[in-house]
Amino acid sequence: MEVVIYVDKDTYYAQSGPGSHRMRKKDTYTQVNFRSAGTTHMSLRLKELEMALQSMQSLSELDVRLEQYPTPPSMAAAVLFAAQFEHGDITGKTVLDLGCGNGIFAIGAALLGAERVIGIDIQSTALKVARQNAVMLGTEDIIEWILGDVANLELSTRVDTIVTNPPFGVKRRGADLTFLRKALAIANIIYSIHLSGEKNRKFLRESIEQLGGTVTQIETFEFPISRIYEFHTKQRHYTKVDLYRICNG
After folding, report:
1. Neighbour count for residue 122 (Cβ, 10 Å)
2. Which of 2, 122, 187, 215 has its CA 20 to 30 A from that of 165?
3. Nearest of 91, 90, 148 to residue 119 by alpha carbon
4. Residue-number span of the structural domain to which 56 is assigned
């Protein structure tokens, strides 16, 4: 199957077979082709990956108790692109997305040629959207979706790479550590997003070391948060987050 992304500066279209997913009114466009997942995508450019992820359907309902803050497509693309082209952690690997939401990391990993991808989320509505996005972008054959709590996830074998945007641990103290604890129990390499700040960095480094992991890299991003919950007073604000690359052992 070939997935085609039609794009101009205001419009993103994704077409897989006879159907299409339209984000905004189409004017003129250029064409970018993605081969079906499960193959090597060394020619895939960062902008092309970002365009594909921008075409995905978002979640319509978010639960503040789960601290759901959707990962922006530009950031997801940058994280996955760096994971592959700086470290070789995606293509040909088994990749797991913990708390997958609409499937942005799972599907992005599939587009970059992951051999097998797993996405887990506690919300059935999120997995429904993720499945639809996978079909739309032609990656449904290699992604397995699991409905369940990350803390209770059991796998028969270890995975190569985990990419996750876990709860920040503000509304539910320790929720971020629950994700890290599970990730370090089942994966060789982890990419995980957390609130920035020296105090939190010190806490997370110590916690990761106690869990048997080693932080090999930290990159800081400006994370945009729209007015999605009642307590938000601004239409959009930015908060600094750190992306941790963690090696097990």
Report:
1. 16
2. 2
3. 148
4. 38-248
Percentage of the residues of the chain whose pLDDT score is greater than 70: 72
What is the number of other CB atoms lying within 10 angstroms of the CB of residue 200? 16
Q: Which amino acid is at 14?
A: A
Q: What is the CATH number of the domain that holds 67?
A: 3.40.50.150
Task: Give pLDDT tens digits for 209-226.
Answer: 999 999 999 999 887 765
Nearest to 99 by CA among 127, 73, 141: 127
Taking the C-alpha atoms of residue 158 and residue 165, their distance in angstroms, rounded to an integer, is 20
Taking the alpha carbons at both ends of the chain, their separation in whole angstroms is 39
Separation of CA 161 from chain center: 12
Taking only the tens place, the pLDDT of each residue in 164-217 is: 999 875 566 767 899 999 999 999 999 999 989 999 999 999 999 999 999 999
Helices (H), 63-174: 73-85, 104-111, 124-136
**Residue found under tokens 């020619």:** 43
User: CA dihedral in degrees (101, 104, 105, 108; nearest 10)?
Assistant: 160
232-249: pLDDT as tens digits: 466 666 788 999 999 997
The reply to whether 11 falls in a domain is no
Q: Is residue 90 part of a domain?
A: yes
Within a domain: 32: no
Q: Is 27 inside a domain boundary?
A: no
Q: What is the tally of structural domains in the chain?
A: 1
